[in-house]
Design a protein that fits this description.
four-stranded antiparallel beta sheet, 30 strands, 366 residues, six-stranded antiparallel beta sheet, 1 helix, mainly beta
């Protein structure tokens, strides 16, 4: 647990070495010697990860998934491996302010920026074996924060300065997508707050970061709450059906208790509310062979309310059978007691069978 394995850069022959890297500098000695690594053309398939110890692709365990040539970051209980965040003072700011704790902070479903006058940077380095695409969602509601995103690649080329600044989010999450070059790419998300002292500032939020074009992932990702994977080698996690839930890394979904409910893809169950008049509707049954119809009441589906809670309404009883109303003019009653439009060359006042039009010839003298 004191070290991990990484590959060196590929040489001109397309080969590389696997080397051991200590997790903390100067904490241990006697690291394993470098060994010949896999060829640079090597990749893993969907549902697999590269075990760096054996340098072989292995299937993801149940409850986890892998996109193969893509990596996804959907859970932010902690910063995922490879992400780095740090805070620094701005040139215009107070040089005596300690910005060491002004970082991007994982919040479960997303990662949040700082809200003080420091500059906080979140970065991630990724090596692509072919041109790929980066996509992520962000929520940027406060113009008191300057929010920029940019990419630097192998050739030290960076995103144009005009394209760095992100658009303010109107009311919901915004989606961003950019193409990445083959080779090494370093992704940067950076925020700086310019607000009056004491003013409340809303942080920038990031989630669902995904990068395509990688050769492999060295770990599988846990299914997020509300999803599950029941077998090994899954490329995606399956959402839980209605009235079930799951925790992170689940292999099965669990049934909600009878007094609770859940919408599809839920990580928890909620208490059922008391039924109200807004939870049902009425409809008329089709006319039967006797020309009768009946008023029926039905619950709106999916039904989430409870009828047994104090103050809850009950579903009204069905009405008495009544004579079906006539069809609209131009329609007639069929053998199945439904109204259908008259065919060409026929008409109806809606009360009976259609009548055939009679055509008369008129001679006009000119």
């Amino acid at each position: 647990s004191d070290y991990h394995f990484e590959y060196t850069e590929c040489d001109v022959l397309g080969s590389r070495w696997r080397v051991a890297i200590p997790n903390k500098a100067e904490t241990c000695t006697g690291l394993p010697d470098p060994v010949k690594g896999t060829q640079c053309t090597f990749s893993c398939s969907e549902g697999e990860f590269l075990d760096m110890q054996s340098q072989q692709c292995q299937k993801c365990a149940a409850g986890t998934f892998s996109l193969g040539t893509s990596i996804a970051f959907e859970e932010w209980d902690s910063l995922p491996t490879g992400f780095i965040t740090h805070g620094v003072t701005t040139n215009e700011g107070n040089a005596f302010i300690n910005c060491s704790n002004s970082t991007w902070t994982p919040k479960g479903e997303y990662v949040a920026s700082n809200t003080d006058e420091c500059t906080a940077t979140l970065s991630y380095a990724v090596s692509l074996k072919k041109p790929g695409v980066l996509s992520f969602e962000y929520f940027y509601p406060d113009s008191s924060i300057y929010f920029e995103f940019f990419v630097q690649n192998d050739q030290c080329q960076s995103t144009d300065s005009e394209r760095r600044w992100m658009r303010i989010s109107e009311s919901s999450w915004s989606h961003y997508k950019v193409e990445l070059s083959k080779g090494n790419n370093v992704l940067y998300w950076r925020t700086t707050t310019y607000a009056l002292l004491g003013g409340a500032v809303k942080p920038v939020l990031l989630r669902n970061i995904q990068v395509s074009g990688v050769a492999y992932t060295s770990e599988c990702f846990h299914c997020k709450p509300g999803t599950h994977s029941s077998k090994e080698g899954s490329a995606r996690c399956t959402p839980c059906p209605a009235d079930t839930y799951s925790n992170k890394g689940a292999t099965v979904c669990h049934e909600c208790e009878s007094d609770k409910y859940a919408v599809p893809g839920s990580g928890s169950c909620k208490p059922r509310p008391a039924c109200t008049n807004s939870d049902y509707f009425y409809t008329h049954t089709p006319c039967d062979s006797e020309g009768k119809t009946q008023l029926m009441y039905k619950w709106i589906e999916p039904k989430i309310c409870s009828e047994i809670i104090e103050g809850a309404v009950k579903l009204p009883a069905s009405g008495e059978k009544q004579t079906c109303p006539p069809c609209n003019p131009g329609f007639f009653v069929t053998n199945s007691s439904a109204c259908e439009p008259c065919s060409n060359d026929s008409y109806s006042d809606g009360k009976g069978a259609p009548s055939v039009l009679t055509f008369y010839s008129v001679l006009v003298n000119v």
